[in-house]
Amino acid sequence: MDIADFDYDLPPERIAQEPLPDRESSRLLVLDRRGSAARHHAFRDLPELLAPGDLVVLNRSRVIPARLIGRRRNGGAAEIFLVRPLSGPGTWEALVRPGRRLRVGDRVEVDADLSATITSGPLGADGRRRVELQAPQTGDIPGAILRAGHTPLPGYVRRDDRPSDRDRYQTVYAREEGSVAAPTAGLHFTSALLSRLSARGIDSAEIVLHVGPGTFRPVKTPRVEDHRVDPEPYVIPEAAAQAVRSARARGGRVVAVGTTTVRALETAARPGRIVAAGSGDTDQVIVPGFAFSVVDVLVTNFHMPRSSLLLLVAAFAGRERTLESYREALSRGYRFFSYGDAMLVL
Q: What pLDDT, on the 0 to 100 scale, is given for residue 17?
């Protein structure tokens, strides 16, 4: 398949730059894969659109304030974008800017209690480096990151982050720190909405997949089958694996909230449409033709053209139906990407 077949025209003004004040008030396009016309709802209608006995699976990964903005020794601006810890709280893989000017041994001063020293050359194709963080005043590196770091809003949000983004670019059920991008389909949920799902007899379970920067990397290979993504760590707790088994036993559907949840569940899939508890890294790329073993229903946002996320949705809903739904969403004024509206694919 040619990646050009997964392109669409998106006016820049349709890319949401701000979250809505009320998470549940996002719009929700409902796409039924059996062929009926798309329907249009508010996200707060989700409990009525699912059925008692269904299981909603959430990614509880928490976004870290991964952008560290500071100064080089000569006074020039620099940025350290934390990607993943390597050992202890102080050793990280990170993307650095300006990459050509930051060399091994250079130090970036972020604030009075946080600095970063470059300790390796490029480690991979994306140029990430190994850095050592120091918190000379308190010795509390995680606390220093929390105080000095900036919310890693994606590049298509064309503004600086604000204090309010620390809450709004985070799901209400986020707990385990490790993502550098939000699992954005979950941003529409509120505690009240989760309670309404439970009251309707719809169970929920939680997994973890820590989102890396490759989430927003466009597919550059002409053939979609040749695209690769960076490994991302995931955990399937035993409680989540058991919840999937219970949903199957009662005839309920597995509802994956977000592409990250899909990738974790399908990576852990075993014969019989069940999920194995455990942890590891996944570099699974899901493209049209993929045989889904676990996921029956998908909640997702609208994704970038030519992205691995759009490929996954097209694999689940069909390429033509997916792009047709995107065109309809555009014609009806839906908001796109991380702070935008959502789709429910049945």
A: 98
Question: Tokens standing for 307?
Answer: 């992205």
**Helix, strand, coil % over all residues of the chain, rounded to 5:** 25, 30, 45
pLDDT band at 217 (very low <50, low <70, confident <90, very high): confident
Say if pTM beats, i.e. exceeds, 0.90: yes
- Give the residue numbers spanning the domain of 230: 3-63+166-345
At 252, the pLDDT band (50, 70, 90 cuts) reads: very high
Q: How far apart are CA 6 and CA 306, in angstroms?
A: 5
Q: Please choose, from the candidates 43, 41, 45, the residue with its C-alpha nearest in 3D space to the C-alpha of residue 332.
A: 41
Residue 279 and residue 171 share a domain = yes
Cα dihedral sign for 161, 180, 259, 192? negative
88 and 140 Cβ atoms separated by less than 8 Å: no
* In a shared domain, residues 220 and 305: yes
Query: How many other C-beta atoms are found inside a 10 Å radius of the C-beta of residue 25?
Result: 12
Query: Are 83 and 122 spatial neighbours (Cβ–Cβ below 8 Å)?
Result: no
Whole-number percent of the chain with pLDDT over 90: 89
Strand 114-118 relative to strand 107-111: parallel, antiparallel, unpaired? antiparallel
Domains of the chain: total: 2
Q: Which residues contact 338 (CB under 8 A, 6 or more apart)?
A: 16, 153, 154, 156, 157, 169, 181, 182, 184, 187, 301
Give residue-wise pLDDT tens across range 290-324. 999 999 999 999 999 999 999 999 999 999 999 99
pLDDT score, position 124: 79
Length of the chain: 346
Measured distance CA(117)–CA(67) in Å, rounded: 15
- Cβ burial of 39 (10 Å; 0-12, 13-18, 19+) is middle
Can you tell me the distance from the alpha carbon of 187 to that of 183, in angstroms, rounded to the nearest whole number? 7
Instruction: Check: CB of residue 151 under 8 Å from CB of residue 116.
Output: no
